[in-house]
Each structure stands twice: as structure tokens, then as C-alpha cells.
Amino acid sequence: MGCSASKTYRGGNSLRIVMVGLDGSGKTTLMYRLVTGEVTEATPTLGFNVETITYKDNEFTIWDMGGQENIRRLWRHYFLRIRGILFVIDSADNDRIDEAQELLDELLQHNELLGTPIVVVANKQDLDGAMKEKDIVELLELKHISGRLCTIQGTSAITGAGIHKALDNILRFRHHMESSRG
User: Fold this and answer.
1) What CATH code would you report for 3-180?
2) Which of 68, 101, 109, 153 is catalytic?
3) Residue 32 above 50 pLDDT?
4) What is the pTM assigned to this prediction?
């Protein structure tokens, strides 16, 4: 679907994005699904993974940040020149949605990320009992986010559903920001 791993890039549109969220939300599986087009077995990320892909004539450098609590304090070191945030949640984990909401609030307080567009990636939509997007919008209080473009995208790293739409949202936000600058 127009997405490939890239070693050299000759296009003109380069985007550096971070993929963050609680541990176990599926960030690494999502990233490698984008890179390979297949499901790969992922182990907990103890630091970060970084991959570059080309999608719709845009180069995305994706920083997949480990979500364990002791690693999260290091995230801020990777926020410089970020053009978008993919905030990944496990939409089938009702027990940790409050923790995800607190983490999102903390993330939005970082000065380096002021105004940076965010796509909440509601992963694991293929699982029974997964929360619907409208419920996640309410639980994460997304309607109260101001000063940045924000949306939600349901995905499944296993089936591949919605993953490219998350990247499309980053591109749409980028276009909107460039258009509004004049």
C-alpha cells in the first residue's frame, strides 16, 4: 500500500515522529508491521527502536519508545524536531486506560512538544472487548486538548487495519499546519 522500508531517500518530505504509550500497547508490533508489512514477534522495548519508511512520497523516521515507567522519563531526549506523535493505547486493556490518560496528560505538558500534532492510535481493535473510538475519546478527554491538532485512529497491528490511516492523519495535519502558515 505504498509503504516500504527505506535506506536511502530522494524525496523532499521528511518527517520525524515518535511512537509512545504504555508498555504492552503494541507500539513495536505496529512499527514493524509498517516496515515489513507482516506481523513480527516483538519483545518489550528496553530503550527505543528507530526505523525509516517511505509512505506516499514521504520519509517517516519513527522512534518507537519503550513504555515501561522507568524508560518514560528518557522520552524527552528524543522530542527535538518531532513533527508528530503517535500515542498508542491498548484499546482492549480497560484496566490501564486511566494510566494511559495520565501519561497523555504528562506528554502534552512537555515544552518541546507544544503544538505538535497527535494521533491517538487505538490499537488492538481486533480483540473482543476492545473499547470503541468514541469511548476512548471520552476516557482520554481528547475533546479538551487545545493548542494542537489531535485525532484518534482505531488500528490492529495484527490485521494491519487502520495503520496507514494513522500516517495519513499525520500527513493531513502537516498539510494543515503548512497551509495555515501561509
Assistant:
1) 3.40.50.300
2) 68
3) yes
4) 0.90
